[in-house]
Amino acid sequence: MKRQKIIILPRLYDGGGDLRKSWFVHYSCRNPKTGEMDRFRLYDGFTAIKTEEGRRQHATRLIKKYTEQLLAGWTPFQADEHVIYDDQVMYEYLAKNFGRKKKSNHNLRVKVSRYLQKHKSMWAVKTYGTHQSKLRIFTQWCEEQQLSKKDPVVMTHAVLQEFFDFLCAREKSERTVDKYKQVLFRFFEDLQSLKEIRENPVVGIIARGKVVDEAAKPILKEDLDILKIAIQTQDPQLWLACLFQFYCFIRPGTELRLLKVQDINLHSKLITIKCDKAKNRITETVQIPSQFAKLLVTQYRLQDYPKQFCVFGQHGYPGPEPMGRNNFRVRFNRIRDQLGLSKDYKYYSWKHTGATAAVDAGIPERHLMDQLRHKSFESTDHYFRRHIGYRSPAIDDHFPDP
Asked: What is residue 144's predicted lDDT score, i.e. its pLDDT?
């Protein structure tokens, strides 16, 4: 198997020596969840330094610090998903130290890699990344317990319970623990269907993670006004991405990042989310509210770009190559933090903010269910209760005084 790059060491971007431009140090690491190279930029400290020599000295310190950390095995990702791999679940602390392939047919790593490879073409990229990262952590734990070289038949219910006790001891969230249950249940279910094990050891596991609400929160009106001005001024492309979420409820990952000009029918005011990009793997359409459709034509002039271009190209406008993963999230977080706003506000908050505004405007639930691309009122009701809260006109207008 061809070896992959694992890191691109830090270097300086100096804007061609122009002190009026943003200077930053940038480096790249392979994301263990997605398998893609993610780029990171370090802006801290440059703006306050007004001389070229001072900025270059600051850059040298940053480059030295992050180069040493990266070569020592640190990554900007979660500590328990260390770094880089060269098969489906291969962990490497540093590429030069690890990378040996296991040859035993009974090896856990081999079976996990086989399972992931079998399903890779059937799963969405994010789904595959979730399974890959969770199974990689499980494989690493098994290796530490001297279990990885044995046949998976030794993975008894008691062994799996130990693993989940390990997760809970590390204060993993309830949602994360449940996701591990789902991923491992499906993996062992696959082994069971192949008659490689008799029983699924995940059945009956008792584990409850730390109760943490990790969901993005809708943005309050007073904070929304501040964010709107800041993003419009500093990052017009990011603002357009926020508007797509706000008006059309398009998910900010693969759906929005890979959206193409040809997917948008400006005349009919419709957007087609194709099955290969959709979370549910179904091609569907959503409406473009009139005021947003007008902006797309008059301000952003999407009709002037080639149909095959990605709406969010790499240079701030539509282009042949899409924006990198997590790029908008990082840009949003930077502006949010500059403003000192709550970290409960996430890039994904714009979708929930739009849904909240639509409910307050009195748009019927049935219409919102279609715009959210939910398949039932139950799904929409659950979404509203989780992200917006229960709303009753009767309570609002007719609640009696004491």
From this structure: 82
